[in-house]
Amino acid sequence: MEEAKDQFAIRCDGLTRKFGGFTAVDKLSLRVRKGELFGFLGPNGAGKTTTINMLTTLLRPTEGTAKVAGYDLMDQGEFVRSRIGVVPQSFALFEELTPVENLWYLGELYEMDRQTVAKRTDDLLKIVTLYDKKDVQSGTFSGGMKQRLSVAAGLLHSPQILFMDEPTTGLDPQSRIALRELTQTLNQTGITVIYTTHDMDEADKLCERIAIMDHGKLKALGTSAELKEIAGHSHKIELQIERCDDRLLEELKRMTGAISATYEDKMVELRVKKLKHDMVHELSDYLHRRNIEVDNFRITEPSLEEVFIKVTKKELRD
Predict the structure, then answer these.
(1) At residue 3, does pLDDT exceed 50?
(2) 260 and 175 both lie in a single domain
């Protein structure tokens, strides 16, 4: 069949999945650009994995339409599957087999020729830094090594789109960092990456655009910076001082253009939409002239968790 053309790697319109009376994904509509590292962010039960299962043809949508790699999800599932790779949350390969044996087995399933499988196996095991373990049983690997092998398996047939479903869950910090770096490297080669996670910090550092899901619905969509604007603040300025009366608090609010100013437990908190380049100097100079000693001075950006609380009206659930 002639290769389908589309400027988007994924397009969904009203994608819905119900299990009896329960709606796991509710009228999801979005576009993912080719070559994008796109994140689905949300707590467990938000609908992320169900969405991935539909987009990878493991689950049939109850309603709605979608195109993946230019092909219709309902009617052209075979072509969709030939152009996607999947890295599941849990290790799904054979633990009694070595990395080479696992990849050769998958090559047979994909009906790839042996010469191609041999080259791809060597290349991929080097990319995921498992070449020196190529003949060791996979069941002896650490969690991070198993996930890297899963990445190699997902890439064996040179997919256009790689789905990664909470791949760092349960990994130690070093393995998490290594897998994130590998994901970024793969994306830089032109592979579209769809990355689901419930880790706010991970999504913030990794993804170009992020969709926040909760209770099966798309709550917000944009870059990290765009999402943080939803929270209503861009920066938080904290000043630890011994005393602060209403007059001083009002003056600090006026100087910084803060939309809110509070003082509690010897800490002034100012919320500002835009941080002026000379604001730190102005504040320091003003407090020095007033002979006000500052024990701690900190400026932070809002976190994606603040955005999540803003759009879902609740704390992050695990």
Answers:
(1) no
(2) no
